Amino acid sequence: MQLIARGQPLEARHFGYGVLQHVVARRWSQFTHPERQELAKLGDDDGRKLGAMKVIPADVFASRDSIPRRSCKDEGPTPQCDASELPEGAKILFFSQRWLTLTHPDDDQGTKRQAIVAAAEAYAKQEGVDLEKVYIWFDLACVEQDDLAELVRGVNALGLYITACDAFVSIDHPEYWSRAWCLVEQEFARCAGVKRYVISEGKLAPTDHEVTDPRDGNLTVEDDRAAIDVLCLVADDLRSRLYLSAVSQMFSEANLDEAMGKGWHNQDNVPDALRQNIIET
User: CA Rg, the chain, in Å?
Assistant: First the structure.
């Protein structure tokens, strides 16, 4: 995942610190529609430096010739809507993917846009709902791209967004399962128990693909390695809170505390605002 270009602050290239603070201590599959809406609302919080979760109706997305780009510079109506205000029965799909270039996730043929539309249509058919009830979360379209402060808030909240979705869809790519950021997204979905799918050659299928250690994954920006290390522990702590015993929870919390105390937290090159955000959440 490459939301912004090389050279931006580390804080703008990581995600997920707020999720543990907001996930209730029960299984993801038991969340009701109102509870998922409450999860989405938690992103809109200045104190936690998280961004409100925005999504795009799948039928609106399908009507576009290219993937929409969220920007504060846009004038007039925009396709995004607030995930906390969706109608009863709405379904949210989180799309995880390998960007095809450093500046844009899609190619000139719109291959990725076509995959997203095909996945949304297949999911709607599978769930027996109209396409207009399906909503899409896709990074370029739903995270602010031209306001750095807001972009950071959105990226910080990605772990929360994954937990608030009904399904997690990876877009097939030869390098997908070797990329560290893609693997971390997969790890959040796996640890939260969100249903995972893959869209390949226009076909949507469930997947239980093994998630290899994201810390061994490839990165475009090697400085992100420290963020990957901590997020793996965050995801593990999420899983222990939702599914495992109190003893397992204690060990995962201890590992996370150790990482904060001996690893990333004490590194001089980590911005103070980022360090404080991790500590508080």
Answer: 18
